[in-house]
Write a structure and sequence with these properties.
single chain, 84 residues, mainly beta, six-stranded mixed β-sheet, 1 helix, elongated
């Protein structure tokens, strides 16, 4: 049985170049054919890899990313970028 999608926002900081950003995801949970609950992530209707396991810096392409709860970028860095 599929569940209603939820929206979650995360803050990200690249530990390689220092770039910081925020992103909001629509997360859809469903059971796969084996009965295992899976989460699928979408941004603006486009499927994306999980930011929790496949984080990539939007600036330098680095993979050493720290994930924080939403709102942390704006409070830590004036003028920090946000994106959907």
């Amino acid at each position: 049985m599929d569940e209603s999608p939820v929206r979650e926002s995360y803050s990200f900081v690249c530990l390689s170049c220092g770039f910081a950003w925020e992103r909001t995801f629509e997360i859809r949970h469903a059971l796969d054919s084996g009965g295992v609950r899976r989460a699928t992530y979408f941004v603006a209707g486009v499927r994306e890899p999980s930011p929790l396991s496949h984080g990539v810096c939007r600036e330098c392409g680095g993979h050493h990313i720290r994930i924080l709860r939403a709102g942390r970028v704006a409070s830590a860095r004036p003028g920090a970028q946000t994106g959907q």
